[in-house]
Every structure is written in structure tokens, then in C-alpha cells.
Amino acid sequence: xxxxxxxxxxxxxxxxxxxxxxxxxxxxxxxxxxxxxxxxxxxxxxxxxxxxxxxxxxxxxxxxxxxxxxxxxxxxxxxxxxxxxxxxxxxxxxxxxxxxxxxxxxxxxxxxxxxxxxxxxxxxxxxxxxxxxxxxxxxxxxxxxxxxxxxxxxxxxxxxxxxxxxxxxxxxxxxxxxxxxxxxxxxxxxxxxxxxxxxxxxxxxxxxxxxxxxxxxxxxxxxxxxxxxxxxxxxxxxxxxxxxxxxxxxxxxxxxxxxxxxxxxxxxxxxxxxxxxxxxxxxxxxxxxxxxxxxxxxxxxxxxxxxxxxxxxxxxxxxxxxxxxxxxxxxxxxxx
Length: 336
Ligand code: ASP
Fold this sequence. Notes:
By secondary structure, the protein is an alpha+beta fold. 26% of the residues lie in helices and 27% in strands. The strands form four sheets. Strands 8-7-6-10-9-5-15-16 form an eight-stranded mixed beta sheet. Strands 11-12-13-14-17 form a five-stranded mixed beta sheet.
């Protein structure tokens, strides 16, 4: 199978980014199988299972792959993968240790979607670090798709989650430093960013996705971004593929980014072409100030082909497949 060579295979080392061969690792070419879970026909042109995630989060993709290799499904994999970063206190854009809003409160947004098209989300969740697992509980244990604020926290506690203070000393200090000037400027790129969007295809060929974040640092109290909004931060269609977004959520919401990418794949675009088109929709809006913010998409289609694209340089997609777990440098729009 011939694929567009769209991303360079990289090893991110302490010395910097080493670019090597392009990723063309596809096996099982054109093999068709019936999914045990759904009965749908799966065209297997890539080696399964596979996991991709936004940014350089190899510990998280490794945890997700472990679930898949032990025969777990894609939903369990993306939940377990996201939990790794939610528990990582050093990561300052997700879960415990996330940077707070301008009033000093850490508030989390997350969502999850399975191969059946079911979904769950939490917004403005306080004091519970595993927002992705609460989102899954919303999906599985309630008749709703989204719970917010106090209601989400109350539901989490009644489901057995332990409340805790999510503001670490490091994040508190960063917030106090920010308060000196109190100027909000979106940061274009943060290397080793850890807001997580993760997509997985399990051995049955079924796709699930999840997204979890503490949102923009020093946001207005009550602000919610794209990450918990199904269709914007995440969308999964098990017949077509899936997409997840990162970056300035407002711009993703305005273009319903992840749904757009999946619909473009439905129309025949590759994951790479679909991500590029979705970024184009943002940057080509009249008077777009895209030079001041970053948005990145990653996507996978039913064949296991993947793509990633961002407005600016510096975005990476972690891909775990065939015993390899690597951060791949993404293509980007702004060459100036
Ligand atoms: N998309 C997230 C938000 O706008 C932030 C991020 O991905 O860094 O809340």
C-alpha cells in the first residue's frame, strides 16, 4: 500500500528532535474481518491494535497499549491512557497539577466516546483528578451525556471517586507569578504539553477516543473549551474513524473540528488530508488571528491510517503500534 509520507518519524531526546525515516508501517494489507463486538466489517490495512495521542505522552500511550495487548478493548485503553497523565502532577494542563483559572481554581473538562457512538462528558469538574473516568461513568451509569460543576462532582463522589485538592505547589506558584501582571496571552506551543486526546483501535478493529484537560491556564472562571464537547474536542464514528483536538478550544468549537475531520474522512479524505482541511477552515476565516494561537488535530481512519496537523510548528502526535512508541513531529500550516 502506498501512503502519503506526511509525518517524519522522530525520536525526541534530551538533545532535541532527531528526524529519521517516514512512518510507513502497515501490515495485514487489505485483510477483511468481522468485528466480534459490533459485527461490522473491518478492513485491516494497518497493524492493530494501535494508539495515538496528542503531544509527547509516551507513558500514556504505553499504558493504553498494554490494555490492548492484554485483549482489552479500545474504550478501556483510552481511559487508562488518559489516567496516566491525569495522575501526573508534573503535567500542568491535565488532572492533578493542572494550572488553575484566574481565581486559582483547577477545573477539569473531559469526554469519552465508544465504538457504539455512546459518549459521556464532564465540564468544570473540581477536586476529582480522573475526569476521564467520571466522563465514562456519566456515559455508562446515567441517562445523560454531560454533567457540569457541582453536579458532576457530586455524581463522582457518589460513584466512589475521592475528592482531593488538585492545585499543587508548583501550579499555585505559577498562578501567583501570573497574577503579578494578570495578562492573558495564549501560548502558541508548549513542548511536552500534556493535555491528552487519545484514540485507539483494538484487536477487533473497534475505535474509541477520550480527551481530558484542565483547559487554558488562567481562564475566566466558568470557561469551558472544546475538550469535553463531543464533535469539537472529540468524535468517533466506528464505521469511518475518529479525531481529537488540542489547542485553543474556542477556535475548535467554532468549526466543530473533530466532527468535521470525521465527515471529511467519510467523504474519502485520508486522515492527514482531513486534518489539514480542518486547520484550513480555521486559518482561512476572514480576519483570522491564527498567528496568535495553536490548534492541532490527530485522526485515524477505520483502516488504521493516521494523520496529524497543526497551525504552528511544535505539535507532536504520539503513536504506539507494532512495538514502537514514538512522538512524531506534525505537519503545520504557518511557515512564516
Ligand atoms: N483544547 C483545550 C481547551 O481549549 C486546551 C488544550 O488542548 O491545551 O480547553
